[in-house]
Write a structure and sequence with these properties.
Arc Repressor Mutant, subunit A, mainly alpha
Length: 85
């Protein structure tokens, strides 16, 4: 996982914990100080491809944490706690 992917992943997880829903691509890019939404799309889709996030095709606000990277010691977002129980 690249440093930028890690930042996006951590932001999505934190946003889920605080808001109980996924952030929009615009919210992610604004929070991380990126002006290009296409970069966020690319990063999110690479996280989906690598199995860290799950998301329904064409529905970005459905993204959830699918699995935690081994090197991250973070709390999972609520849907994952239910899904993995």
């Amino acid at each position: 996982m690249t440093p930028r992917q890690r930042d996006v992943f951590q932001f999505i997880n934190k946003y889920w914990l605080e808001n109980h829903c996924a952030p929009t691509m615009r919210i992610i890019s604004k929070a991380l100080g990126l002006s290009s939404h296409s970069n966020i799309h690319r990063i999110v889709h690479s996280l989906v491809k690598d199995g860290y996030l799950s998301m329904k095709r064409g529905r970005p606000r459905t993204m959830q944490i699918a699995r935690m990277p081994m090197h991250m010691n973070m709390e999972l977002n609520p849907p994952d706690l239910i899904k993995n129980s």
